Structure formats: C-alpha cells, structure tokens
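Q: Structure tokens for this one, please.
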Amino acid sequence: MAALEGGRHGFAFASGLAAEDTLLRTIASPGSHFVVPADAYGGTFRLFTRVHERWGVIGVATDLTDPKSVEAAIRTGETTAVWVETPTNPLLAVADIAAIADLAHAAGALVIVDNTFATPYLQQPMALGADIVVHSTTKYCGGHSDVIGGALVTSDDDLAERLRFHQNAIGGVAGPFDSWLVLRGLRTLAVRMERHCDNAERIADWLVEHPRVAEVYFPGLAAHPGHDLAKQQMRRYGGMISFRVHGGEPAALDVVRRTKIILLGESLGGVESLIEHPGRMTHASVAGTELQVPDDLIRLSVGIEDVEDLIADLDQALEH
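A: Here is the predicted structure, written as tokens:
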C-alpha cells in the first residue's frame, strides 16, 4: 500500500475504522480541532461525534469543495488536521486536494485523505500534498467482498513511529490471511478499476436519460460540478454512482429491492455490483444531523459484470 500510494510507511489494520481510530488516537488530544467533510462516510462521522467527541475532540463539518469554506473553518495554530474524502461517500463530491493542502499547511495543520473510493490506481493524494492516506481495504483494494481491512500510509517518519506505537498498543492489526487476501486483490487492482470505470461511465450516461431518475451524482459527467477537477487529479472517475429517483423514499426503497443481478448490500468495491439506500443503511448514523442524506438517494457500486446486463437490471427495477 505504501508503494502504491508513493509513501514510505504503511500500516495494515483489521478494518478501515480501526485505521481511522488509531490515527485519531495518535494525533488528537482533548480540544483537538478537525475540519471534516460535510458529506462524509457515516462511520467516520460517528467516530468523531459518538466516540472521540466525548474526549473533547472537535470535528467541524465543512463543504470541502468550497475553498473559502475550508479557509474559514481552519483555525491557524489550532486545527490538527483537515480530513478529506474525495470523491465523497455517498454524494460523490470532489475536493481539491492540492488547494486544501496549501491552506492546511499554511495554518500548521495536517491533511488526511480517505482514498477508498478512488484507490491508489485512480488518485495519489500524497503527490498532491496529503500527509496521510487512509483506506478501507475491504473495498476496492481487496476487491472480492471476502475480507475486512484498513490501511494508513505516510512519509512522515516521526508520525510513522507514533502510529507504530499506537497500532501495537491498541491492537487493531490485520490478520495474516486477511493481509494475504488484500495483497491478492492489489495484484488485479488496475485491471479491475478500468472495468469498474468503463461500466460506471456507461451506466451514469444511461441514468441521466431515464425519466424516473431525478439527479445523478458521478464525477465523470460533464455536468458534475467537480468534473474538471476530477479530470485533473484522477486518472478516471471511479466505479461509484449515486442517484435520486422521483417518488421519494418509497420509490428509492422499491428500486433497491427489485434489482436481481445487482445485489442489495452495504459494502462496495467488489467485483459484483451492489445497490443500497444510504439513508436506511450506510448513513443511518447521520440521520438528523447536518450530514443527513436525501431519503430518495440510491448508491450503486458498479461491478465488472457485462454492462448491458447491469443496465437491463436497472431498467426493470426502475420501470415498476
């Protein structure tokens, strides 16, 4: 993972959240201030608000796609780090890693990038100024929905030494077989990501034209507000698509129940396509907060199956 991300130090964990928790315990202390995405993975937001907030750690949800908002949220000499997801989960917003790094470093803050969606094949945050890269290797790096794991990568020698101590002290390490499974997945990462991207681009174009689809979130669409930025800092646009349907939550729940080839499931990044309702599933923990997702939103992890089969499956699910 360190080699793929262009870093000097890599750490393997039992899960992505174990990696995030160890990182926070390494760099945070009571009163530490973090800038976090206003559209963050629910588990990350829960870790800040339900676990570390009780120890005085502050996570301020901010629109990281707006440089002025980022600049306003950072407190010079006080902010510990800016936590970046790009593309975000589940609304696929794209943040400018290099610009955020300039703002954060000028204020003495670190930059952490969750690169799970993009993978090191499509995006290398450390080359753009990030200090630490986080992964849930459960997803694309493993790639076969048969392992749970996480990883941290950095080139900061002092930080790496502290991470090594905390990883050993806390104990959320990856098991040998899990590590082997992730290594197996990494051997085919490039070829899988090309197919994920091919399929996602076709499906996103098709969804845009469907009369029951109200809005499509995919950085590969020219109309996406982060399209030009994604073109600059990513090799391609990834395999994740989110879309909203007319008819509200009942219609969205109906669609995710009706797909046949595309399986209903919370995870993502495997060779098989998965569909879910974030409001009821992956992002239920942010209901009632500023990160609450639309109730008519559907998230699709596009697999590597035949794209015509996937489109036909979505078509029959949307027609009901």
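A few notes: The chain has a mean pLDDT of 96. The two ends are 44 Å apart (CA to CA).
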